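Reopening closed ticket. The problem is back. First fold of the pair:
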Amino acid sequence: MKQPIRNIAILAHVDAGKTTLSERILFAAGEIHRPGRVEDGLATMDYMPEEKERGITIESGVAHFEWKNTWFNFIDTPGHVDFGAEVDMALTAVEGAVLVVSAASGVETQTLASFRKLRESRVHTILFVNKLDNPDYSLDETLINIEEALGVRPVLMSVPQFKNGKMCAMLDVLSQSRLVHSESGAEVLDDGWESDAGAAEERALLKKYYDEAVEFASNFDDEILSLALENKPVPPKMLLRGLKALAASDEYVICYAGSALEGFGIRSLVTALSFFLPEVPTFGENELGQVIRLRHFRGVGEISLFRSHVDLLRRDWPAGFEFSRLKANMLLPVDEIRSGDIYAMVSPFETELGQVIYLDDNCARRMSRQTKFDMTESNSWYLSEAKVQRRETRDESAAGNAAPSISENYLPLLQTRVECVRTDDYAHVERSLSVLARMDPSFRVQKDDGGFWYLHTVGEVQLDVLLARLKREFGCEVRAGSPEVRWQERLCREVGPAENTFQIGPHKMSISISASPLEGDAHDIRLSAEFMEKAPLEILAGVRSALLESTEVGVLGKGPLVGVRFEVHRFEWTEGALPPMIKKCCADAVAKLVKPADVQLYEPVMELSLECPVNFAGLVTGDIQAREGKVKEIEGDGKTHFLKADVPLRKIFGYATGVRSISKGTALYSMKLLGYRPATV
C-alpha cells in the first residue's frame, strides 16, 4: 500500500507565530534537531537573507516530513500583505491548511483575508490558537473572537494547562490524554497522569470538550446522533469519523491551541493533519503535473516547484527533465516521482505559473495556457496578459486545466524607475527583471524607450526585496529612484473616432478607433471589432499588444488607463505586415484618440487597522488625521486602543518609521487597498 500524501499550507497575520509553528512541526516530526527562532534569524523555513534580516516570510518555503505513516509537503506562506500572491499560488497545490490565530491579538486583518482565501479555494482548514504561554491571553476570549469575526463555530480539540503561571501540559480531547515535555523538549504522553492531584479536574475538563465535540459531530453522523440521544458513550473512532465530516463543512472548524514558542500543542495539531484532511485528488489523464512556483538559484538557474500528477520512475521521465526534493536552498535528487507529491523541477523550457505539462511525445512543448474573454458581448474580447483568444474557442479553453490568473487579483500601487549603473549590463538586467516578473505574479515591469524600466509593485517591502534579490541572485547593479504612487486614469467621456495611417516601404496600414469608459469600477481593457474575427491571429495580437502597452503607460504618466472599451471601426493592412508595424500604427492612433483633458485621475486609498496602548491614542489619531486620514472606527478595552481609518496612499509612505517614533515602538498596524477615489490634488 502506497504511503498517503498530504499537502498543507500554513497561513497567518504577520507576527502571529506562523514560522515558529512551522519550525516546531518540523522538530516534532524529527526533520530538524532543534527549532530555529525567527527572532535570531535561524528559522529553517526562512532561508533568504531578506527573510532572516526582516524576521518575516517572503517566499513560500517548502519542507517535507513524515507523521503517522503519512508523507507531508509543508508550505510556509508569507503573512505580509505585499506577498499575497505567494499565498494564492500555495493554495492551488494543497488539500488543507493551518490558520494561526494569535491569542495576543485575535483575528486580525490578514487572518480574515487568509480565511476568506481558504474558503474560496475550498481548502480544508484547521485553526491553531497560538501564544497561550502568556497567562494574560485568554483562550475563551479568542474562541469568541473567532466565532464573531470568521462566522464559524470553533470545535476545541486541545486545552493548555498551567502551573505557577506557566504552561506545563496539553490535554488532547480526542485521545483523552495529557501531554508533557520530555527532556529533549518533545511532547510525550504523561503516563503518570492518573496519580496527579489535579487529574480528576482535568478529566472533567476533557469530558466537557469531548461531549461538546460529540454534540457538534452528531450533526454530520446519524450513528453518533443516535448514541448521543440515548446518552450512550461515543467511541473515539466513531467521533473521529463524524469530525472528518464536520471539518469539511462551512459552519464549523476544528481548532487546536497551545504555544509554538514553548512547543505545546504541536503533537495534537500534526496528528489532526493526518486525520482531518482529504486525500490528494485524481488528476487528468496524461498529465505530468503543474507548476506552482518559480525560483532562481544562482549557479543553477531557474527551477519550478512542481506538483506531480503521475507516478514515474527515473527511467520513464521525459527527456530533459530532472526532479529533486527542495530543502531550504538545497536540491536533493530523487529517483521517482509520485502523484500528488511536490518536487523541484528543472525542465528543458521556460515554465509558467499555473502551467499544466502533459506527458506525451511532445511533452516539452505541450501545455495549457490561461485565457480570458468578454462573456457578455458577442463581438468583444478581454485584453489580458494572456494571449487574445477568439470567443468561439472560449468553451474549449474554459474546460482546460489552466489556473485562474493570480496576477489580475493584485493591482500594483507603486512604481519605481530603475536604470543600469553600467550601460553594458542592459541586456542582463532586462533578462533578470523578466525572470523576477515571472516568479512573482503581483510584480510587473514596464520598459521605457529611454533605456530604463518602471517596476510596479504592491508595496514598499516587496520593492526592497526585489531590488535586493536583483543584486544577490542575478548580480545586477541598478540605480533605483524613489517609489511613487501608481494612480489610475479613467476616461471622462466617449472619444473618437481617430484615424491614423502608418507606412514603411511597401507596407501600409490604417486604423479608425474610438473608446468609451466602462461602467462602475471595472478596470478591464476590452476590444470590440466584429469584422476582425476572421483576421489572422498576428494582426489581432498586434492590435492587442499596442492597446495594452498604451493603456499601461497612461496618458498623464501617473498610472495606467483602466476601464476602457476600444472599438476598431476599420483596420486595413497589406499582406506581410509585421507585428511591430501594427503596434506602431495602433499606438499612434491611441495617442491621437485620448488627450489629457479626456481623463480623470483616481488615487489609491488604504484601510489602516491599528492598535496601540491607550496613552498613545491621541498622538496616533492626530498623526493619521494630519495625513488626510478619515477615522471610521474606534474601540478600546481600557488598555489597548483600536482604530480603523481610510488614508490616501500618497500620505502613508514611511508610516512604519513615523508610527514607531510616536508610539515608542508599541503600535501594531496593517493596511489593505480599500479602493480608488477621484484625486483632489
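Second fold of the pair, where the issue appears:
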Amino acid sequence: MQGVAPHATAALRTRAALRVALSHYVANGLSVALGLFLISGAVHLWLGAIASAAATVGVIVATPPDAPGPRRGKFLQMLPAPLLSIPLFFAVQMLHTMPIRLGMVLIPATFIAFSAMAWGKRGIPIAIAVMFAMIFSMATPAPTGLQEALDRTAHFALGAGLYVVYATLANLAMNGRYRTLLIADVLYSMAALMRTEASQFKAPDETSDVRDTPAPLLGLLLQQTAAFADQIQGARDIALESPRTPRRQRLAGMLVVVLEMRDQLLASELDLDALTQLPEHAPALAEMRSVLEQLSDEVVAIADAMLMFRTPGPLADLRPRLSMIHLPADHPHAPPHAGPSPAVLARGLANRIGHINDEVLKLNKLMRHEIEPDLAVVRANWRVFVSPTAWSWRPFLALWHWDAPPLRHAIRATLAIAVGYTIAVFMPWGSHDYWILLTIVVVLRGSLSQTLERRNARVAGTLLGCVLAVGLLATHPSAMLLLACVTFAQAIAHGFAVRKYLVTSVAGTVLGLVQAHLLNMGASTTFALVERIADTLIGVAVSWAFCYVLPSWERGQLPDLVRRTLVAQALHARLALGLGQLHDIDNSIELEWRLARREAFDSLSALVQATQRSLAEPRAVRPPMEPLEHLQAHSYQLLAQLSAIKSMLVLRRDRLTPADIEGPLLRTAERIESLIGSAPIASTPMPTSAPATALGGAIPLPDPFENDISPWLLRRLDLATGIATQIRDDAARILQPSSATAAAPPAATPVAGTVPHEAA
C-alpha cells in the first residue's frame, strides 16, 4: 500500500478483518461450533467423557453439509450423511483388529461414498462426511467387545442425530441474517468487478505494469464474472426463498438491482478501446474512471452498513459530475465519416456509467426504505431461480458411463485409499494410520489444479497445526478445555473450508489431533509431531500420484461446455431482441429473458473455470488455448452488446422508431441463431470471418442525445452479428479433431487475455 499513511493502512486492515469476522461463512462456522459445544458438553455431563468423545465425532461427521441455505429442504440435506455414516462407523469398530477385513469394507465403502459426488456441490460434503465417519472410527481405540462397539456407535449416532436437528433449527433461526450477509457478500464482489472495470479506463501510455495491460485485465474480468455467477446463485437460493415480509422483499429487490448493475457494467465495455487510443480523451476517461471507483466505494459502504446493522447515509447523485466532464470536440477538419464520432462515443460511455450510478442510488434507497422493491420482478424470480432441494436418482443413474468425471473420480479415490491404507498398515506407527487416509480425502479432488492447490495448503497447514496441537497437548489440559479447543478449531475449519483452505488445514489439524487425543484418553503425544508430518507427506504424495490415474482432463469436458455456451448465447440473443418488449414489458417475457441471461452467464462461467483449471494440466493434454480465449472474450462481448441493446429497448423506448427496428431485430436474432444456435461441425474447417455488416453497409449516426436513437441500435445489431460470426469460427477451431493436439501456450498466458475488446 505505497503512498498510504500508516494509520490509514491500519484502518483498511481493520475494516477488512471486520468484514471477514462478520461474514456469512464465519457466522456459519460459529453456528457449527456452538452446536458441537452444546451437544458434546451435554453428553459429557450426561454420559461422561468417553461418550462425549464419540458423540463429538458424530457431530463432526454431520457438519460438512451444514452451509447457509434455504430453510426448505435443510433437514433432508443434512440427513443422508448420518444415515450412511452410522453403519460404516460400526463396521469399522467391529473390524478394528482385522486389517484385511477392514480394508475389504473400507475400499468399497469409499467408492460408494465418492459416488455421491454425482450430485455435484450437494453431494461433495456427504461424500466427505461418510469418509470422515470411517476414518475417525479408525482413530478410536479398538473396542473390547461387541457391547463397547455398540455403545460407541450409539453415542456417535446420538451426536450426529442431535446435530441434524440443531442444524435445521439453527439455519431457521439464522435465515434472516444469512440473507443479509449473502447480499452483502454479493455487493463486495460487485464492487471488485467495478474496480477491475474502472482499471480499463486508461490510455495505453498510462499502463506501465504488465499486469495492468488490457489483455490480463480482460482475463481477470472473465474470471471475476465467472466467480460472481456462482456466487449469485447461492444468494438467490436464500434471498429469493419466500420473500413474503417487507424486509425479505427489500433484500430480494436489492439482488435484482445488482443483476441490473452487472448488465450496465458489462455494457460499459463498449466503445472503450476506440477511446483509449485517443490521447485527447485521456482526461475524460480518467474522470469516468474516478466516478466508477467512487461508485464502487459506495457499494462497499452499503455492504458495510448491512454487516454492521446500520442504515447507510444518503448518496449524492453523480450524474451531474458526469455531465460536467469535458469531452473534446471532433476535429473540425477531420474527414466526414458515417460511423460514430469519438465525442459521441464518449458521451454514450458516460451515460452508461450514469445508469450504473442510478442502480447504486436504488440500492441505497432500498436500504434506507425510501423506495419499494419491484415486487413484480421479485415474485417472478421467486421460485424459478432457486435451486431444487429435493433429491433425485437421475444424477446417480447418469453416473455409469466410463467417461463420466464423477465415476472416474470415485474409482480414482478408491484406488488412492486402497494404496494409502496398505501403506498405513505396514507403517511402524500403524495405530495412527487414519491420518494418511484423512489427508487423501481432503487433498484429492476431481481436477489436477484443485488437487495441487489443496496439496500445498495441506502440507503447510499440517506443519503449523501439528506444532500448535503438540504444544497444546504438552500442557496436559483438562477434558473441558480440550473440548473448548475442539469447538474453536471446528469453527475455523468449517468456516474457511471454501474461502481459505490453508486456514482450514491448520484448524483441521488441531481438531484432528486433539479429537484423537480425546478418543484415546490422553495417550502420549511424544512422537505425534514427526508422525503427523510423515503421514501427511505420504497422503499428499498418494493424492498427487493418483491425479494421473483415470484422469478427467478438462480437454474432454470442454466440447460440451462450448456447445452449451453457444446454445445459451443464441437463446439469450433471441429473447433479448424479442419484439414483444417494444410494445409492453410483459412479466412472462421478462422472466424468460432473465432465465436465458442466467444460463448465458452460467455457461460462460463454467467454460472460463474449466479453461483456467486446464492451465495446471500437462502441456500434452491441454486444450487449444488460443481459440478458447477468443471464444470466451467474444462471448463476453456479445453479452455486452446485447445488454446495451436491451437497455435501449427498455429504458429509451420513447426514442426509438419501431418501424425502423422491428425488421432488423427479427433478422439479427435469426442470424445469430443460425450462426451459433448449434455447435458447428467439427470436421468442417471454417475460415476466420471479418465482422459482418449484417444490415447493409455503414449507418449514419446522429447525436443520440438529441435525435432518434434507432440508428445506434442498428449499429449494435450489426456489431452483435459480427461477434456471433467470430464465436462460430472460434468454436469450430476448438471442436476440430486436430485442435486437441495443438501446441498450447505457456501456462502464464492469462485466460482470455489475448483478445482485444470489440472496437467500435
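Update: turned out to be a display glitch only; the data is intact. The first helix runs from residue 6 to 21. Confidence is low (pLDDT under 50) at residues 207-214, 522-527, 681-698, 738-760. Please close again.
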